[in-house]
């Protein structure tokens, strides 16, 4: 048995890990996809940094943070991603970064086409529609077949690339926030390249639970969060632009604080959450010390499979996310087929079983309930969920 698989099932190990986190008494949180917890040591570091910056104010920021610490943090982030420091720039979150990439992509002409699917994040959909109003392009919206398969996903994009020959740009989400479907990014990006279509990748839910390499994926433009599965404070994300493609993204609204050949000019300039940024060296250290994305992803996948395997074939329950290991991760959605209002069932799960989940809508397959275990979730929590779903169906 591979080490990550064995460790994923080791409840004693994960309890030791869970003990590093402060958890408020109350419902069992199965909505960990919103944002992640900081460990106690990261919280303490964050608080120290707040106090330091509050005491020293601009003296420390101008003399230390801007000139030394921020550059070191950027270099460590690049090392985590396996890319050059010149290809990453910090942002407040993935949404900010993706909006910047989309609005500043400069290879579009009036009459060109841009593409997104039903499973994209609403902020990304809005940014792509903004291009239609301000760049004179045509927006193509597609729906994915349900249930999805590896081949059906590729077929949908292949058909779109052939049907819409003026396509130049598409949005693609690595891990979709509505259902947890993991898109076969490498295969889709390769297909897009064959048809001259650039991809802007939404990696908000991928970083920290999916082990990947951007070069291998064939991605030149991407936005990420650091506050989901990496364990950083809120307000931290970043963009990636392959160095050879930097000229295809304009400086953000004429940003002039950095040279035109510096990726940091592709984001809006403002005073960031400096104490939060100063926690990142410790965040990266703790992430790597526990085995990184491979270890975290294996644990989350084990917890996901524990409840899914117990209920997938039960009448009255439909699991929206496939079991193909290439297409699933810790996040998975389901719905009660005999109940029209999934929000009512979210409330039943909370009131009757003390399980906190979230309803999601907007996908072509209809409303669903998103279930996201976290790094403090136990196998017993998953068993309780399976029991609850079985009884409520």
Structural class by sheet pairing and helices: alpha/beta
Shape: globular
Q: How big is the Rg?
A: 21 Å
SS elements, strand count: 13
What sequence of helices (H) and strands (E) makes up the elements? HHEHHEHEHEHEHEHEEHHHEEHEEEH
Helix content: 40-55%
CATH superfamily of the largest domain: Type I PLP-dependent aspartate aminotransferase-like (Major domain)
Largest sheet: 7 strands, mixed
Distance between the termini: 35 Å
Domain Aminotransferase class V: 43-354
Keywords: Aminotransferase, Pyridoxal phosphate, Transferase
InterPro entries: Aminotrans_V_dom, PyrdxlP-dep_Trfase, PyrdxlP-dep_Trfase_major, PyrdxlP-dep_Trfase_small
Pfam families: Aminotran_5
Structure write-up:
This protein is an alpha/beta fold and 393 residues long. The protein has 2 domains: 3-30 and 292-392, Aspartate Aminotransferase, domain 1 (Alpha-Beta Complex); 48-286, Type I PLP-dependent aspartate aminotransferase-like (Major domain) (Aspartate Aminotransferase, domain 2). It has 14 helices and 13 strands. It has helices spanning 3-8, 11-18, 40-56, 58-81, 94-104, 122-135, 150-163, 185-194, 214-217, 274-278, 280-289, 292-311, 342-353, 379-392, and strands at 28-29, 88-91, 113-117, 138-142, 167-173, 198-202, 221-225, 237-241, 317-319, 332-336, 355-356, 358-360, 368-371. It has a 7-stranded mixed beta sheet, with helices on both faces. The chain has a 4-stranded antiparallel beta sheet with strand order 9-10-13-12, with helices on one face. Helix 7 (150-163) packs parallel to helix 8 (185-194). 43% of the residues are buried. The mean pLDDT is 96.
């Amino acid at each position: 048995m591979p080490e990550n698989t064995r460790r994923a099932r080791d409840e004693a190990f994960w309890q030791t890990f869970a003990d590093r986190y402060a958890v408020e008494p109350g419902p069992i949180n199965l909505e960990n996809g919103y944002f992640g917890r900081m460990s106690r040591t990261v919280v303490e570091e964050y608080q120290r940094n707040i106090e330091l910056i509050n005491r020293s104010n601009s003296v420390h920021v101008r003399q230390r943070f801007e000139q030394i610490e921020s550059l070191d943090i950027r270099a460590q982030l690049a090392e985590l991603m396996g890319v050059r420091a010149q290809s990453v720039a910090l942002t407040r979150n993935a949404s900010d970064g993706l909006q910047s990439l989309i609005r500043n992509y400069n290879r579009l002409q009036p009459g060109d086409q841009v593409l997104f699917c039903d499973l994209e994040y609403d902020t990304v959909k809005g940014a792509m529609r903004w291009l239609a109003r301000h760049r004179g392009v045509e927006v193509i919206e597609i729906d994915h077949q349900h249930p999805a398969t590896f081949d059906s996903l590729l077929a949908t994009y292949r058909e779109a690339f052939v049907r819409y020959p003026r396509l130049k740009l598409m949005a693609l989400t690595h891990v979709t926030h509505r259902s947890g479907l993991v898109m076969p990014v490498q295969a889709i990006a390769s297909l897009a390249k064959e048809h001259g279509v650039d991809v802007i990748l939404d990696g908000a839910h991928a970083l920290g639970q999916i082990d990947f390499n951007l070069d291998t994926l064939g991605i030149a433009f991407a936005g990420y969060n650091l506050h989901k599965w990496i364990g950083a404070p809120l307000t931290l994300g970043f963009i990636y632009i392959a160095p050879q493609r930097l000229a295809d993204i304009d400086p953000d609204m004429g940003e002039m604080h950095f040279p035109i050949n510096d990726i940091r000019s592709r984001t809006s300039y403002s005073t960031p959450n400096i104490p939060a940024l100063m926690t990142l060296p410790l965040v990266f250290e703790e992430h790597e010390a526990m085995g990184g994305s491979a270890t975290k992803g294996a644990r989350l996948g084990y917890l996901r499979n524990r409840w899914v395997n117990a209920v997938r074939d039960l009448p009255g329950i439909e699991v929206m996310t496939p079991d193909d290991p290439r297409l699933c991760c810790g996040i998975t959605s389901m719905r009660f087929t005999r109940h029209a209002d999934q929000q009512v069932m979210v409330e039943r799960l909370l009131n009757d079983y003390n399980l906190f989940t979230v309803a999601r809508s907007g996908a072509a397959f209809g409303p669903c309930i998103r279930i996201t275990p976290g790094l403090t979730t136990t196998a017993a929590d998953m068993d309780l969920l399976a029991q609850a779903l079985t009884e409520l169906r």
